[in-house]
Design brief:
The N and C termini lie far apart (60 Å). The chain folds into two domains: 169 residues, no CATH class; 196 residues, no CATH class. Helix 9 packs antiparallel against helix 14. The protein is mainly alpha-helical and 378 residues long. The radius of gyration is 23 Å and the shape is globular. It has 14 helices and no strands. Helix content is 71%, strand content 0%. The longest helix is centred in the N-terminal third of the chain and has 31 residues. This is Integral membrane protein.
Length: 378
């Protein structure tokens, strides 16, 4: 009940982010139901249903990532002083974040079910009733347990991930609450592993694409390679952002470079991971454009819907993480303004951070895409 009351009284931008999560949940639920309808029509040796289900994992993972980002920027679930005294400690706040995420995701899953039944023709008297009856296997009954299980994936996984994101950190022996810093400027340790995973993923993508050149199928090896690439870039992203901040502060920096570099180091873990995932998605889009030029009609409508969901969710996650970083820097920004720092300096600092990240990640994205698409041009 508390989660519903907080949802009703939230700021319009907060409600917009929750609606985006509901829309993403609806898209993933619809894709999963379409895969189920394809599976019940019989065995498909050329295009197994399990392979189609595997292609739904990328939109599912992107939606869960968006759910965590939305929960972290929700004012109703952010930890504040004095809440423990009224019974809203870290555990209760974690449960509240999970409940709020589940409400939005369940709403999206319900919309997906209604839209799916509508296109199958099971709901009569509505526009476009049964227009996709043949595609969605209208003549075949769907197992109720499988439908409920698939529709529950986003709410359960999203709520669980949101609860884990709000889990209080473990304290060392003898360390009272408040000793640990909110942000750490230590260099993330995942950069070497991220580079290695990215290289392996690009190699797998290139090898698989070369092995299926001239065919119309979309092999599971391409998905496996892209997944490794995305995980590698997500692991390497924080280290790259941290390194950008350190380089920006080197060689006799001024006030603007000092502020921009320190902010990048503080936010390396927060924005580095979603930035790395966006880099992987954009590189996949560039490589897919090369694939589309080599093969006639390589992608169907459901594949395009899944790609749109991944692109939209990852972009929304990055923007939401940037909003979270801005919220956490609000006190620092107010303090600098009180000390007499001009507002133009702070705006120029934010612009410098964006330019540096774009200058680093844009060539990286292009390089990964070119390496992945290189076998398709031969």
């Amino acid at each position: 009940m508390l989660a519903l009351r907080l949802s009703r009284g939230s700021h319009p931008l907060v409600l917009l982010r929750r609606l985006l999560l509901a829309a993403a949940s609806a898209g993933v639920g619809f894709l999963l139901l379409c895969t189920l309808s394809y599976a019940v029509t019989g065995p498909h040796p050329a295009d197994p249903a399990a392979q189609r289900l595997a292609w739904c994992l990328a939109p599912l993972a992107a939606t869960v990532q968006l759910a965590v980002a939305v929960a972290r920027t929700d004012p109703g679930t952010r930890p504040r002083q004095g809440l423990s005294a009224v019974g809203l400690g870290p555990v209760r706040m974690s449960a509240l974040a999970a409940a709020s995420t589940a409400v939005s995701a369940v709403l999206g899953s319900a919309v997906a079910l209604l839209f799916f039944l509508h296109l199958r023709g099971d709901l009569s008297g509505t526009p476009f009733d049964g227009d996709a009856a043949e595609l969605l296997a209208a003549g075949e009954p769907l197992p109720l347990g499988a439908v409920l299980l698939l529709l529950a994936l986003v709410p359960v996984l999203g709520a669980g991930a949101a609860a884990l994101a709000f889990r209080p950190p473990r304290r060392r022996t003898g360390e009272p609450p408040g000793d640990e810093p909110e942000h750490s400027t230590e260099a993330p340790t995942g950069l070497p592993w991220g580079v290695a995973l990215t290289a392996v993923g690009v190699a797998v993508e290139a090898y698989t694409a070369r092995g299926t050149e001239g065919t119309g199928g979309t092999p599971g090896g391409v998905l496996a390679g892209w997944t490794l690439t995305a995980v590698g870039l997500a692991m390497a992203g924080p280290g790259i952002v941290h390194l950008c901040g350190r380089v920006l502060q080197s060689v006799r920096p001024g006030a603007m470079r000092l502020l921009a570099g320190r902010a990048l180091m503080d936010d390396a873990r927060r924005i580095g991971r979603p930035l790395g995932v966006v880099c992987a998605v954009v590189s996949a889009v560039i490589a897919a454009s090369a694939l589309a030029g080599e093969r006639p009609q390589p992608f169907g409508p459901l594949t395009a819907l899944g790609a749109m969901l991944v692109a939209a969710c990852t972009t929304a996650t990055l923007l939401t993480s940037a909003v979270e970083a801005r919220q956490d820097r609000a006190a620092t920004r107010a303090g600098l303004l009180e000390l007499g720092a001009p507002a133009a300096l702070l705006q120029a600092t934010a612009l410098l951070r964006a330019v540096v990240l774009l200058a680093v990640f844009a060539p990286l994205t292009w390089a990964v895409a070119e390496l992945a698409a290189l076998p398709l041009r031969h």
